[in-house]
User: Fold this.
Amino acid sequence: MLLHFLRRALLTLITLFILSLISYHILMRDPLNAILAKPHF
Assistant:
């Protein structure tokens, strides 16, 4: 049970890390378009 929870938490952390890395690269490459295309909630 604990192992399953740890594995799920690790997968979530890795996914969040990859997503933030991708968005960071998009911001660095094209900051203006990224800011303009950002959805406003």
